[in-house]
Every structure is written in C-alpha cells, then in structure tokens.
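Page 37, top half.
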Amino acid sequence: MQFLCKEYQDGNPRVRGLVTDTRIHLVPSLNPDGYELAHEAGSELGNWALGHWTEEGFDLFENFPDLASALWAAEERRLVPHQFPNHHIPIPEHYLSEDAAVAAETRAVMAWMDKNPFVLGANLQGGEKMVSFPFDTARPSPPTPAAAPRPLDYEDEHPELQETPDHAVFRWLAISYASAHLTMSETFRGGCHAQDVTDAMGIVQGAKWHPRAGSMNDFSYLHTNCLELSIYLGCDKFPHESELQQEWENNKESLLTFMEQVHRGIKGVVTDQQGEPIANATIVVGGINHNVRTASGGDYWRILNPGEYRVSARAEGYNPGVKTCHVLYDIGATQCNFVLSRSNWKRIREIMAMNGNRPIRRVVP
C-alpha cells in the first residue's frame, strides 16, 4: 500500500498506469483472530498451524461452498450447460441459512465478491513457497463395475486431477508470479515440509498438492468472473521484523507483474441497438467451457492467453452476437464490443404458452 501511494505521488509511470487503469482492492488480513494468536507467539514459538483457524475454529480457506462437486455431478447427469450452468453457479440455500457452519468472515467475503465484478485475485498465505491454482478439489473416480476385477493396489477413494477449462490461463498467471519472484522458482532449495511438488517451476495445481473441497479459489472461479490463486510466500508464517524488507524485495516485482495480468485478454461492453447496456449478458469463448457475465454497466473482462478466439455474447430476449477477437502478447486487453438486436423469441414463447405450448398451425383459406 505504501509503495503504490508513494510511487504514484513520485510520478512512477508504471505505478501511475497501474493505479489509473485498475481498480485495486487490498485486504490486509482475512483472519484477524488467527493473526493475533500468531503475533503473541512470535516466530520462535509459532508453527504453521498457529493462527490458521479463527477463534470459532473455522479454516476460512476451506469454508466456502463446494461448487466443483456439484458441477461434476451435473456433468455426469448431462445437465450442463442447459439445466446446470458452467459458470456463476448459485450458492446452495442450506449454506446461507443462519445456523449453517459458516464463519462470519466467509459470509463477508462472499458478499464482497457478489458486490464487485472482480477479474483477478490472489490470497497470500504461508507455510510453503509456491503458487497454487484451481481446481483444489479432486474429482472422485467413477465407480468400478461390479463384474470388473479390482487391481491389487485398489483403494476405496481414487481422486483424480480435474483441470479447469482455463487451465492454461491459470498456469500463465501462476508463472507470472513465481518467475518474477527472487527465490520461488529456485526449487533446488527444497520444499518446506517435503520434496518439491512443483516440477521445479514453483507452481502447482491445488488438487495435485493438497486436495480439499470448498476452497476460496474454486468458489471464486465457479461463482464469479474472478480467477483466484493462492500465493504461498514462505515457510515461516511469522518472520522477524528484520526479515520483512527482504521479503518485500522478493515479492515486489511479482506483485506488480501479477496485477498487470488483469489487462491481458479481451474486454468490452454489451449494449442494445439504442446503446443501453445489457447486464448479465453471457460471454462465451469458443473452446473454453467456462463463461463470464457482464457487470451492471454491460462491461466485461475475460483474461485469455495470446491467440485468436471466436467470442459470442448472449442475453435473454436478444439475438446473439459473434465475432473473432485477437489477443496479443503485449499487455493491454483487446476491445471486443457487442451490439445485440432484440429477438422475437420471447413473444413467440408467450404466444405458445397461451396455446398450451402446442405447435401453432397456419390455416390456409
């Protein structure tokens, strides 16, 4: 925060461009209860678990609805996307009840996500040194047919990795942080608790490293437009004051580079023929089975890797619009606007409903 403000006032062109063209939200601490416990113990007496849970005993990072399992169950029943969406999956009603086992911090963050059309996010943690990206949930293997023999090493649970439709984009975002970090990609130094799980790159898919359901990253991806990653800054979760300056130098370039990635891909506005914005229009990118929605002003952002994409905009009561959008290697999203014309299908459905949804026959005199 101090760096952005000072460099902006001093006229740093990079920071000025970032602050001017980007809406930046910063949350100093998601778990103030845990931070207070860790602060009291300090670096010598603390451990990775100290301060991990809230005072009520919640692990906030795993306290979100498990939307990934709901999506996969719908896919197996072939309900996606016609009856079950592949994006903006609603929060289950039982999760929103007052007596649900949900932390106050989790409820606040979910409301915050719904209020703001976030595009890119990162949660900073400790205990390891790497970048983790969705899915964090491991998909259960399909059941073995009763007549099929089981292998000798068979276990009841065989979770398998399930990549997100934006797997390539997530890898790019993770690499953009890890490669700019001064030590994160130096995996020859070894991990904090075990061998290197990042294939010497400093990045890993969460389900490959530490499978868990209900993570903030999975929830953000499946319920909002936001691509969220976890950045683990080091093995010591509460470093000494004398070490903080070096920690800042290790991460400074990574933080700037990561935030700049929000301007990679396509962006635009969806309007009707009178120029009025269309909210909640769906933006579909060919070849990527995960859509985003326009915000209240009809605007949208879609992070994509360089390439050529067939993009369509769809909204209830309008004919879809389709165009080809090119994403370049340079930072700066490609403008792709859509103007949709009104459709007659809404009126046709009303007429068919009045006729009992039976085909309407044209009587020839």
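Page 37, bottom half:
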Amino acid sequence: GPDFGYVHKEPLFEGMASLDSFGNVEVSPPVSVAGKEYPLGRILIGSSFPASAGRRMTRLVRDFLYAQRVQAPVELYSDWLAVGNVNEFVTFVPSSDQKRFRMLLASPAACYRLFREKQKEGQGEATMFKGEGTALGYSGTDTKRVTINKVLANDVLAQQNQYVQRCIDWNRDILKKELGLLEEDIIDLPALFKLDKQGKAVPYFPNTVTMIVLARDLGIPKPFGPVAGGECCLERRIRALLEPLGLCCRFLEDVASYHGSLGEVRCGTSVQRRPFAFNWWHCAP
C-alpha cells in the first residue's frame, strides 16, 4: 500500500531458525546514551551466549541490521529460550513523565516474591489455571490443582527459574548500559518458566511481557494466576505496577490461539505506528 515497503533477504547457504523471526527484532524508544542521541531508538536482537555454539540470527539478516547504524543494534542473549525471541523477556510501554517510557522485564524473582507474600497472608491454597488447566497442560492427576503452596514447594521449578533469572539479569545489565537506563526505568513483571527436554525455557503460565502495546492500552496475555479474593493475584500486581503510569491493562485469553504453540498475543498481532513528526530518513549515525 502507499507509504509502505519491505526488504526481502534470503540466505543462500544458511538455514532459517526461530531467531530469524520478527519477535527477535525489537526496537527501543528514543534514548540518549553517554552523550550520544538515538532519536529512532536502538534495534534489539537476540543471539547465543557469548563464546557458545548456540543459535544466532542468520548472518545475512544480522549484517543487514548492523549496516543500519542509525539504530545501532544491541545484541542480547536469548538462546536460553525454546523459541529464542527477545520479545519473550523485554518490552517497552509509554509513560507521561520526563523519561517517556519504562522497560518491562519478565521476572521469576518478582513472581516468587509475590507468591511468598500471598502464602504469608494465608492464601497458599489459591489455585492457578482455573478454567484453563487442560489447555495449559496441567490436567494430570498430580498437578490438576496447582496452588501457590505447590509452586513454592517445587524445588526443581525453583532451580530452573533461578537459572532463567540469571539469564534475564545478564540482559538487564546489557540493556541498562546500552540504552542508558537506571533501575527506576525498569519494571519487573512476575513470570515463571520451566525447562523443556533440551534445557530451553518455556513459559509456565502465559507470559505477560509478550503483550501488544496500543498507545496507552495494553493487550496482555491473561496469566491464569492464583485466584485469591475473587481476583487473579498476578493481574492485580500487574495493574498496580502499570496503571500508575496512565496505562490501561486489558487481559486477553490466548491459551488456545497462541500460548499452546509457545506464542502469546504479540505473536499473532501487529500495530501500525504513527510516524515521527520529523523526516526520519535524514537522521545520520
């Protein structure tokens, strides 16, 4: 259509992988880093751990992105995920203050803090996955009723999420440095993961970070967290973190449509953004 275009890159000798998906090409809001301005933000791509032989984005695509120096790419570590896309652990939402945005990170540590808090309040038997247990794969007799107490007593799950948190913290440090962020610019959203047979992480419940941002309306995967006092405690905590920024949280059920195939709301949706007021093609690196 008018004012739209695309570039097609097809590698001749390399196979395509999930790290070549567009969920693995994100861009930050405009930032200033160590005196250097990035008026169009910076490209974020996921890759393998440094010095490892893991999955990487196809070289043809990586070289194409690096050649676009105005948005100088930042390479993150995403190969610890089964799908391996950066949008599984980081996204950005607008704010009305001087910073203009917040970075959201998936956080197992924040989830465990919340669950322990609820356990201390006497809500340890609050049940997860109500109405969606079978679709989420929790229909076995031993896990039919997943409670806060059961999650907190699961040592294997705790160890797996400690590993995931270390992977996210590695990226947190990179993002703070490369985007010029402070801790106050970051919001940790409760998340849990589990490792598959290959040792790669998949979401334990729908991953709320993989949301769609429509100005100040957020389409967030419904997490089906522990219900206490008639409300999902994960939804309540996320609202408490994001609504003070003037954002509207709308939780969307995406289990059958996306989550069951290791995706979320953002994997099947797109947004047409309003262009910058200035001639962005005149920006020089």
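Margin note: Residues 18-267 form a domain with the L-arginine/glycine Amidinotransferase; Chain A fold (CATH 3.75.10.10).
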